[in-house]
Amino acid sequence: MANDKTRKFSSVIVDGVAQAPSRAMLHAVGFEDVDFNKTQIGIASTWSMVTPCNMHINKLAEDAGEGVDGAGGKSVIFNTITVSDGISMGTPGMRYSLVSREVIADSIETVTGAQGFDGLVTIGGCDKNMPGCMMALARLNRPGIFVYGGTIKPGAHRRDIVSVFEAVGGHAAGKVSDEELHEVEQTAIPGPGSCGGMYTANTMASAIEALGMSLPGSSAQEAVSDDKKNDCHRAGEAVLELVKKDIKPRDIMTREAFENAITVVIALGGSTNAVLHLLAMAHTADVKLELDDFTRIGARVPVLADVKPSGKYLMSELIAIGGIQPLMKTLLDAGLLHGDCMTVTGNTMAQNLADVEPYPAGQDIVRPLDNPIKKDSHLVVLYGNLAPTGAVAKISGKEGLSFTGNARVFESEESALAAILDGTVVKGDVIVIRHEGPVGGPGMREMLSPTGAIMGKGMGKDVALITDGRFSGGSHGFVVGHVTPEAAVGGPIAIVQDGDGITIDAEKKELSLNISREEMDMRLAAWAAPAPKENRGILAKYARLVCSASEGAVTDKF
Fold first, then answer.
1. Is 400 helix (H, G, I), strand (E, B) or coil?
2. 169: pLDDT confidence band, cut at 50, 70 and 90?
3. Which of 42, 208, 370, 535 has a Cα at 20 to 30 A from 294?
């Protein structure tokens, strides 16, 4: 019989005469008498058939459950929602994407709190359900492990979802025929798994492994593979050890662990969404983390991985040479990681990495420290009169380090996309897309459709784009998102007019509207708050509760 320490929560639900009704209900879902004396582990599955990222996770949840049951625990699988960024991109449905992160965290917290699980395994496979799972683990602070659902295999000709978005831009430019576009559409997504570059899903999986909340190697496995099946099984076993040792998420999710996550994201050239999600995860873990921490760490950490979207290689090709573990060992040996951080293995990061072999000779996917792709971070936090509380740029250096142009203002993503595709947007423009922030959207949509169209039309170096919305991990080019304060709450982006000069300077870390202080003050004084776009339902609730993107866009910061 498990001791009270390992059954701290489940014993309240199932022990004693008064809990006979609870046991009766559980008998109906498969519990036997012996199971009531076992440590109960909830398996939070994000399975659904709405997206290839998550279509296989039901089987992975069963694999994790087998690991729990085989090690003497009792697994209980339950579901939460997921939505697809790739499918809803460029449509009003994308407003629900970031909102779903909060719903997922809320739902996992709700089920676990109600059911009295002693520990958790959460399995995520798409952009928002991964940080949602992590936020739930941090809130509950019960022993738990995150398992990544894994990356997709490459499509024909090494295609992926971004290939399709860029083909749309190529089609508008007359470079891609109807037949070619249809062929790309049919072959880019060959089966289960998350989008194949270092986009948000693979970025967040890597960040969570670097944080210490996944088993070593979990972030760098294909969705359909023996490695991923074994990862799930081992996670089921490992969570029982965490329960026995009483190692909880907040023991692992320390400030130093978040610094490790930021370091790995930078070295991999990861998504700007990592800034938003790591801030949110830190908030739920009661860890003080700010935008400026990304700047501080980014000054000393180089970009080493030549991966998509701005680089050449896909995640499956990084997996083939060893994943991120050799990269982490390199960073640790260089003093860029905190090796004493606890992890879900029960060992420290340094202990986990002690026997990791280096990358094979001759590979060119991950550069050595003395020959980086970029000597400092590609994630650049900008301030200035257009972003008093910060904005986040993704500057690989390939687009240059500064851009000055004339504003072409749009009040929505759709109107901007139409203007890009029909040729209204021209060389030298700074596209301004506003009222797409957390409050103004509501929901802070990603802008992969406009950025994909820009790149597909061959304008990546000729125009820039700024927004109070955000970008997909697949976006690249001269782009700045998370402009705060957002337009809907009276941020300066609300008063930009067509033709205004705008300067983006990644070296000075400034985002500037080139008008006089007097003119800016006059425009701000005349600004009036727009009417809410939604008055009922989840989007209305989200708009009323959500905080600034510079604080992670969480809904429980009171």
1. coil
2. confident
3. 370
